[in-house]
Amino acid sequence: MSPCDRMRTVLICHHDDPMNRRGLAAWLGSFTDLVGLVVIRENKKRLARRIRREIRRVGLLRFADVVAFRTYYRLFLGSNDQEWERQRLCQLTEAYGNPPATARVVETADPNARAVEAVIRELAPDLMIARCKTLLKPRVFNIPVHGTFVMHPGICPEYRNAHGCFWALARGDRGNVGATLLKIDEGVDTGPVYGYFRCDADEFNESHVMVQHRAVLDNLDSLKAKLLEIGKGRADTVDTTGRPSHEWGQPWLTAYLVWKLKARWRRRCT
């Protein structure tokens, strides 16, 4: 495929996530014409709104469990995960280089802002990849010719919303640890599914963050093939009719500790 024939893409990601901002952007630019990067710098107002939404969803007591896990993660897991991510990012850079210098970079607190919408329309992408926490509005996700897609860290529809890999592991559902490539619609991870990309998790040594990264990073060749199929209009969707569907949220410390205790018990028994 010549450069002029390559499909035009836009990537939406967060400014403080170099794995996507640099690594996935370089990968996407290696086989598409990456024409734009929408980089989200979330302000305190939007963060507070997400916190209030989570409290309404799970209640104050369970939200305290969420905060406890965040604290535990920072104290005992975060530095190890950061070093692992740094090494994986170096591997991506060695394989794909840097993001294309020609890609237009737009920084925003809100990817649904009218100004961002106008830029995306001007860039006229064939396909957009959303690697962000913000739910996009139809007037934004419907701009690309082939739609906007997410590489969701979880198998859908069983593990919709945030941290699907964590909840599959916490529930002992190891056959459903992986990522889902799906097209965004107006629901929360309810759009058409184009493929599953599973990974074997090392429950004893890996955190959920490592696992959900690997669900994507270990399957980049397969994801590339599927995205190219979508761009050519040849991709089939997966029939998910009749399967259970559940919307999950942030990890709980209690669920994490039970998961790790069970993982240690399984290791001793093998």
Task: Describe the fold and architecture.
Helices cover 47% and strands 17% of the residues. The protein is globular, with a radius of gyration of 19 Å. The strands form 2 sheets. Strands 3-2-1-4-5-7-8 form a 7-stranded mixed sheet, with helices on both faces. Helix 1 (18-31) packs across helix 3, helix 2 (44-58) packs across helix 3 and helix 6 (164-170) packs across helix 7 (208-217). The N and C termini lie far apart (49 Å). It is built from 9 helices and 9 strands. The protein has helices spanning 18-31, 44-58, 60-96, 114-123, 138-141, 164-170, 208-217, 220-231, 253-269, and strands at residues 8-14, 33-40, 104-108, 127-130, 148-152, 160-161, 178-183, 193-198, 247-248. The protein has a single domain (7-269), classed as 3-Layer(aba) Sandwich (Rossmann fold), CATH 3.40.50. It has 270 residues and is an alpha/beta fold.
Q: How would you state the average pLDDT, rounded? A: 95
Radius of gyration: 19 Å
Strand order of the largest sheet: 3-2-1-4-5-7-8
Calculate the terminal CA-CA distance, rounded to whole Å.
49 Å
CATH superfamily, please? Formyl transferase, N-terminal domain
What order do the SSEs take from the amino end to the carboxyl end, as H and E?
EHEHHEHEHEEHEEHHEH
What is the count of DSSP helices, taking H or I runs of 4+ residues? 9
What is CATH's topology name?
Answer: Rossmann fold
Quickly give the CATH architecture.
3-Layer(aba) Sandwich
Query: So what's the CATH class?
Result: Alpha Beta
Largest sheet: 7 strands, mixed
Tell me the number of strands. Answer: 9
Low-confidence stretches: none
Shape: globular
User: Quaternary arrangement of the chains shown?
Assistant: single chain
Percentage of β-strand residues: 15-25%
Proportion of helical residues: 40-55%
What is the count of structural domains?
A: 1
Structural class: alpha/beta
